[in-house]
Amino acid sequence: MFIDCRITYDLRSDDRSLDRWTVFDTKTGRPAWVKGLRQVGLAFAVADQLVDALNAMERAAPGSSVTWSDRLSGPLLAPV
Fold first, then answer.
1. Can you give the pLDDT at residue 68?
2. What is the DSSP letter of 43?
3. Domain count of the chain?
């Protein structure tokens, strides 16, 4: 059995002080969207748990971490 070890989401520091973190999509490099909110400015523990949860969702069912409303929330489709 082959286990896919690639990750879809990861985290990176928002600033040099390492106090705030962004959860981002490794395919696009853009911040992740959850329930219409960009996942930026998070405490490390929160960001780390979110990365684990989103990646678990992706391993279980690819595409399941992105809801329909989140697909419409991106910068290219923002309301005018």
1. 52
2. -
3. 1
